[in-house]
Each structure stands twice: as structure tokens, then as C-alpha cells.
Amino acid sequence: MFNLILFGPPGSGKGTQSENIIAAFGLQHLSTGNLLRNEIANQTILGLKAKTLMDAGQLVPDEVVIGMVDNFMNAHPTAKGFLFDGFPRTTAQCIALDALLQARNNEINIVLALEVSEEELVKRLLGRGATSGRSDDTNETIIRARIKEYQDKTTAVATYYAQFDKVVNIQGEGSVAQIYADLKKEIETRLA
Ligand code: AP5
Predict the structure, then answer these.
(1) Are 109 and 166 within 8 A, CB to CB?
(2) How many CA atoms lie less than 13 Å away from 93 in the CB half-sphere?
(3) 136-178: per-residue pLDDT in tens?
(4) What angle do CA 122, 14, 16 make, to 5 degrees?
(5) Is 128 among the catalytic positions?
(6) Residue 174 DSSP class
(7) The model scores a pTM over 0.85
(8) Which distant-in-sequence residues (6+ apart) come within 8 Å of 103 by Cβ?
């Protein structure tokens, strides 16, 4: 199996680049944001609780997302590997993910970290908010709260994986095609 974390702040291009990577390398896309939005669309109890936090730009509790990830991995037993998008987001989630993978005799192979300036992130998310219908994209105050959550709690994820020498930083500004080419090169190096 080949397991990859596509890491970066809100609006850095994780979802956009995930589409290219899963198509090229046959990985299973696991986006906790998408899983949570499905729960909201289905009006589950989990979704209703998560919505309040997501609309405020705050993280959902670790145990909720870890449980969702475990269920998703169990539902895809024949996956060639997973592309984790938006997960893990805290050190506790990193530790839990390592345990989930170890239980399956697996590990994270690489963390690709997209680097984008805060002003570019805000511009992209406000731009998407005009058409996406995502409630957390329409208001600049909420967008900046999401970025602050990232800085306060999620940058620790890169620190965690750096101790195992698994993090590669990628310039996340420029054309989608150029950024994809840089990501692809790093994946191919690790697969070789
Ligand atoms: P989530 O759905 O994960 O959202 P996010 O991290 O805020 O990321 P986005 O989807 O907004 O951005 P992205 O990096 O995927 O960029 P994209 O490709 O879409 O999380 C939402 C919420 O769910 C969280 O706030 C939290 O509440 C909760 N949650 C999720 N996971 C959790 C977890 N593990 N723990 C706790 N809570 C969790 O691109 C953005 C825009 O930019 C698009 O319009 C795109 O077209 C454009 N764009 C992309 N690339 C470029 C480029 N190179 N140049 C110009 N524009 C570009």
C-alpha cells in the first residue's frame, strides 16, 4: 500500500490536487471534510453536531473524525492506498492514524505540504464561496478563523511527521498543472 497525506491550510488546493493524484495513482480519496458534509446532507446526529463547529470555522472533536476514518478504511479493504485530505489535523489524530495503519501493517509513506500565503487563501476561498454554497466560505471572518485553527492546532501535524523525515514542502501558488507536476514527481520518487 502507498499512503499519502496531502497537507496544507484551508484553500491550499488539497481537494483540487487530490482529484489528479487519485486518478493517476489509483489511491482511495479520504477527505474528512467531504465525509462530514455528507453527514450534514443526510441530517445525521453527527452531522448536526459537526455543522455548528464547521460553520464557525472550528475543528470537529478528534474522536468523531477518527471514528469516521476507521469506518471508511474498513469499508475499503482492497484499497491500493489512501490519500488523506484534511486529516490528520491535530497531533492526537496523527497518533490515531498511525495506530489505525499499524493495525493493518501499514504506515504513512509521505506528507506533501502545500505552502500558500494567507492572503491568497482568503482570496481563493471567498472566490469559491460565491458559487460553492459552502457556508464556511462566504464570510471572511470565518475564513480567517479556519486559518487560525490551522495555525494553532494543525501545523503540529507537519512537526509530528517531520520527526520521521516524511514531510516534503511544495510551493502551492502557481498553476494547478505546475503544482500537480511537483507533487507527482515527489510521489514517483517515493514509489521508485
Ligand atoms: P475541509 O473540507 O477539509 O476544508 P479545508 O481544509 O478548509 O479545505 P478546503 O476544502 O476549503 O480547501 P482545499 O485545500 O481542499 O482547497 P481546494 O482544492 O478546495 O474541512 C472543512 C471543515 O470540516 C473544517 O473547518 C473542520 O470544521 C471540519 N473538519 C474536516 N476535517 C477535520 C478533521 N480532520 N478534524 C477536525 N475537523 C475537521 O481549493 C480552494 C479553492 O482554490 C477552489 O476554488 C480552487 O478552485 C482554488 N484553487 C485551487 N488550486 C488553485 C491554484 N493553484 N490557483 C488558484 N486557485 C486555486
Answers:
(1) yes
(2) 26
(3) 998 999 999 999 999 999 999 999 999 999 999 999 999 999 9
(4) 90
(5) yes
(6) S
(7) yes
(8) none
- CA–CA separation, 80 and 74 (whole Å): 13
Gap between the Cα atoms of 45 and 113, Å rounded:
33
Catalytic residue among 51, 89, 124, 166: 89
Strands of the chain, DSSP E: 4-7, 28-31, 82-85, 110-115, 167-171
Report which protein residue has its CA nearest ligand 1's atom 6: 10
Q: Where are the alpha helices (DSSP H) in 6-87?
A: 14-25, 32-41, 45-55, 62-75
pLDDT band at 11 (very low <50, low <70, confident <90, very high): very high
Q: What does the alpha-carbon distance between residue 77 and residue 134 come to, in Å, rounded to a whole number?
A: 31
Q: Residue type at 54?
A: M
Helix (H, G, I), strand (E, B) or coil at 168: strand
14 has catalytic annotation: yes
What does residue 152 show for φ and ψ, rounded to 5 degrees?
-75, -40
Side chain identity at residue 141, one-letter code: T
CA 171, 175, 179, 185 torsion: positive or negative? negative
